[in-house]
Amino acid sequence: MGAFESSASRDGRWDRSRLSRERDKLAPGEKDIVAAQLSRTLGALTRRRRLSVLTSGNLGSKDSAHDVFFIKPDSDGKPGDPTFACKRFRKYDNAARELDAIDMAKERGFRTLEPAKMPLHEVDGIGHILVTHQLPRFSTLNQVGWQDSYAGDVTYESRIAAPLRSASKFVANMHRHGITHGDMQLKNLGQIPPGRFVLFDLEGAQFVDPQAAAEDLDFQDRAIADVGTMVVSLVDRGYMWSSSDRMFAEEVTRNVFDPYLEVSANTNPEIVERFESILDEAKLERQHVHPQMAQHVYRQPAMVG
Ligand SMILES: Nc1ncnc2c1ncn2[C@@H]1O[C@H](COP(=O)(O)OP(=O)(O)O)[C@@H](O)[C@H]1O
Ligand SMILES: [Mg+2]
Description:
Number of helices: 7
Number of strands: 10
Strand content: 5-15%
Shape: globular
Strand order of the largest sheet: 1-2-3-5-4
Number of domains: 2
Structural class: alpha+beta
Helix content: 40-55%
Order of helices and strands: HHEEEHEEEHEEEEHHH
Bound molecules: adenosine-5'-diphosphate, magnesium ion
Distance between the termini: 40 Å
């Protein structure tokens, strides 16, 4: 059974818990404990000044299941001072796996996060902190107003279809280089600036020899799961929510599958067959999302847009 099938629950519906994973929030006090300890261990990098938790400018990290937060040297800091992103893992192995994945992604020529000189820190009672340099002007595809326009609208092509096509090409390019992501939701498709993608949230990423990827069925399973996650995540953000399934399928084919195949021309042909199963999963998810979106638009017109 492939990874994509196994992410669906028994009645065939996609497992929504993957989209809204239980938040594992740190208490504010715990963030301060991490900052205090990092002030000591990262001291050399920050000329021994104290690091404090940033309470503003954390936009985007609200999409974080790990409750990523940012720390920076105290206010006498100079403009060039580094700001760090802190991601807490319960288990050392998971933190180390993500760090390895960042290194491997970089080796394969992908833009990704920049680990701090000392990237892994154990904090008593809190866990293992992976420290990376904060990427400025970082946005994710979650921030696109997917529900706001439809195929045929004047702005649909530039605001919706074009970014989707470039995201799909990016995912295909990752797969072409033997990398599967493992959690390819829109919130994990980051870009700086828009249109230039950055790989991150790589705890579940896997790397294989790119030459062998086309023959590796497990790899193909994971690749199709990435595309499936991206499409179901689009549905959940309201992409084409009030259009027919047929129009939805046409747009997904045009903006996700076709650009994907354009880039991964040497992909195993099995992938192509399985796009149909992605559409089936997405249609089931649409039935769930449609009433939700309709209600949202009806009750809170001011919130939309
Ligand atoms: N180095 C960084 N620079 C800027 N933003 C970051 C950085 N690391 C994480 N983030 C922000 O935190 C969010 C969550 O990080 P991610 O690695 O996806 O963890 P999670 O597993 O919690 O989703 C990202 O979507 C991004 O907005
Ligand atoms: Mg994430």
